[in-house]
Specification:
Layout (H helix, E strand, L loop, with lengths): L21 E5 L2 E4 L4 E4 L2 H4 L8 H14 L11 H13 L4 E7 L2 H18 L7 E5 L8 H6 L16 E4 L13 H10 L4 E6 L15 H11 L3 E5 L23 E4 L11 E6 H8 L17 H16 L2 H17 L7 E6 L4 E8 L4 E2 L3 H11 L2 E2 L1 E3 L11 E4 L7 H19 L3
Parallel strand pairs: 3-14, 5-6, 5-7, 7-8, 8-9
Antiparallel strand pairs: 1-2, 2-3, 4-10, 9-10, 11-12, 12-13, 12-16, 15-16
Helix pairs in contact: 2-9, 3-9, 10-12, 11-12
Length: about 425
């Protein structure tokens, strides 16, 4: 085993016996220290949207560092890259958006969104509106409150109890549940009491929880329910933002505007850590007009980091110049059409996708949809042998089952030939793994 002094995310000693040591990347390809090449089938962690080896992003960081690497953006201070990036994000998001609070990543972003929701209602004279409703299978990060919103039990096991005030409902999940399931939100709000519910948070397309797109009527109904009961709607677009679904942000596919937008990952294509919350004009006004005794006492050292924001500006520029935002739709169709051919394999229960993100749910039996649990890890091992890297959403049984689901979301710069390789290598890997004891 390679000796390491790193405690890794999702740390598991067995994984460290022969770790892959990455040394270089170009486009959708990663190279390890042994000279082996891999297709990056998940944009690393859904975040390297522009692909690896973008010198212009390194140059943007270096240029900014030479002028001003860092300065405080606390109230009374600001910097030009942060101001420019905030303005651009508002322009490309939803028409009702008005201001941005910057963070360094996704979990911190959702923690911030929860605090903004509480702050908003307290400023409105409704301090009992504190609860957050999220969805089973949804993923919102792993800091304590974000983990409590995350609806995947394996992340909770060793860190319980969860933070009080988080309520989980079933999502729109056509393969397992009939109908749009939007009524689950209304039932939860009524059960908990509208006077206690601050916000509902949802990914437009569930990502790490198994790539689960909603039915077309789901989010329009969700918006109506939130309005009916005076509940804020937080769109977690940490994965779906910045072109992953063929739009800058995904709720536009259904003509829906949220109250807050969580973003991270693709805003810098992972070249530097950056995230944030975009808030509506209504929420912005409540924050901006607060008296000193009720000021927004939320802060982080690296909020509005000049170098990170400079890289974010260059990233958005590349998306536009190379038309990558809209490239995801045809590439995603090619990927999904190819993966649909794998339905002939007996262990493939469902193949689904939206834009350039797809999921293959594995089952023990196609007719009963009994989840396959443990098969996904074998498939990943076979895929790695064939030069393809991706991740699996580990399945679960019980009241809310899901089979091991292979998640696929390559960089937006992936080629058609590489997409075809992904399909072929996954097909081979599933077939071989299914024959193993």
């Amino acid at each position: 085993m390679v000796e390491t002094r790193i405690i890794h995310p999702l740390h598991n000693r067995a994984d460290l016996e022969a770790p892959v040591v990455f040394v270089e990347g170009k486009g959708a390809i990663l190279l390890d220290s042994e000279g082996r090449e891999y297709i990056d089938g998940l944009s690393s962690l859904w975040n390297v949207n522009l692909g690896h080896g973008r010198r212009e992003l390194a140059d943007a960081a270096a240029d900014q560092m030479r002028r001003l690497a860092y300065a405080s953006a606390y109230s009374g201070y600001t910097n030009e890259p942060a101001e420019r990036l905030a303005k651009r994000l508002i322009e490309i998001s939803y028409p009702n958006m008005s201001a941005v609070y910057f963070t360094t990543g996704g979990a911190e972003t959702n923690e911030t969104a929860f605090k903004v929701a509480r702050y908003y209602w307290r400023r409105q004279g409704q301090p009992t509106k504190t609860k957050i409703i999220s969805r089973i299978h949804g993923y919102h990060g792993l800091t304590l409150a974000a983990m409590s919103a995350t609806g995947i039990p394996t992340f909770h096991t060793m860190f319980q109890p969860l933070v009080p005030g988080f309520v989980h409902i079933v999502p729109s999940y056509p393969y397992r549940y009939p109908g749009s399931m939007a009524e689950a939100l209304e039932e939860a709000i009524v059960r908990e009491g509208p006077e206690t519910v601050a916000a509902f948070i949802a990914e437009p397309v569930i990502g790490a929880g198994g790539v689960i797109p909603p039915t077309p009527d789901y989010f329009p109904k969700i918006r109506t329910i939130c309005d009916k009961y005076n509940v804020l709607f937080i769109a977690d677009e940490i994965i779906t933002g910045f072109g992953r679904t063929g739009r800058w942000f995904a709720l536009g596919h259904w003509g829906v505007e949220p109250d807050l937008v969580s973003f991270a990952k693709g805003v810098t294509s992972a070249y530097l850590p950056l995230g944030g919350v975009i808030v509506s004009s209504q929420i912005h006004g409540v924050i901006h007009e607060a008296p000193p005794t009720e000021r927004f006492m939320h802060a982080a050292t690296y909020s509005g980091h000049p170098t990170c924001c400079a890289v974010g500006l260059k990233t958005l520029e590349i998306y536009e110049n190379e038309n990558l935002i809209f490239r995801a739709a045809p590439l995603g169709k090619r990927l999904l059409d190819g993966l649909q051919q794998l339905r002939d394999l007996p262990v493939v229960g469902d193949v689904r996708g939206f834009g350039l993100m797809c999921g293959i749910e594995l089952v023990e039996d196609q007719s009963t949809k009994k989840p396959a649990i443990g098969l996904g890890a074998k498939v990943l091992a076979e895929a790695k042998k064939r030069g393809l890297l991706t991740r699996v959403r580990v399945g679960q049984g019980g009241e809310h089952p899901i089979g091991d689901t292979l998640c696929v979301a390559p960089p937006l710069v992936v080629t058609e030939e590489q997409i075809d390789h992904i399909v072929r290598r996954l097909g081979e890997s599933i077939a071989v793994a299914a024959r193993q004891p």
